[in-house]
């Protein structure tokens, strides 16, 4: 079985492949995989078993293949990988990078990191449709920036969460953004700035947010 540490290694390999980073887009791809690793760490700390699956259904593929641009969950352009998150009470989820979700208004939105019901993931791949917002347990908007974040990013996130819901929807960045922080705090959106693998405290705080999201999901299913 591929371990969480191997997923972290996959993140490191992606980052190393773009070293020095040639564009913010390349760095952001690696940041998304890193955030997925923290989601899986949170799930594991809540008691979940973590494994991986490829688009064609093979268990524990090696190497893991992640999207580097927004895509459909049912795309077969590459044999993309996703995580399986299984709790002992029978609840099962999938963890994805860079897939679209259908919002309340029928518009699709990219989720940098997405956790959905396992049954929903299988249904969507089988029927070539996008996951619905109601089956999205957790989403994360991931912004890897070398400078400060602009207020427009906060406004965009607010717009998306108006359509895909605001509970357990996270805005995460390695950078600082006082204006973005202020507007998201005013609208009671969950966010964290300054996330870095070089800062264990920042990781622990984000993992705690994700753990709370998983506890919320499990409590609603009792």
Rg calc: 16 Å
**Level-2 CATH architecture:** 3-Layer(aba) Sandwich
Q: Give the overall shape.
A: globular
Number of helices: 6
Structural class, from secondary structure content? Answer: alpha/beta
Mean pLDDT: 90
Span between N and C termini?
29 Å
What profile does the largest beta sheet have?
A: 7 strands, mixed
Beta-strand percentage range: 15-25%
Question: How does this structure look, described?
Answer:
The protein is of the alpha/beta class and 222 residues long. It has one domain (4-220): 3-Layer(aba) Sandwich (Restriction Endonuclease), CATH 3.40.91. It is built from six helices and seven strands. It has helices spanning 4-17, 24-45, 118-127, 151-164, 178-186, 200-220; strands at residues 49-54, 81-86, 92-102, 108-117, 136-143, 169-173, 190-193. A seven-stranded mixed β-sheet has the order 1-2-3-4-5-6-7, sandwiched between helices. α5 links the parallel β6 and β7 (190-193). α1 packs antiparallel against α2 (24-45), α2 crosses α6 and α4 (151-164) packs parallel to α5. 36% of the residues are buried. The model has no long low-confidence stretch (mean pLDDT 90).
Quick rundown:
This protein is of the alpha/beta class. Helix content is 41%, strand content 23%. The protein contains 6 helices and 7 strands, in the order H-H-E-E-E-E-H-E-H-E-H-E-H.
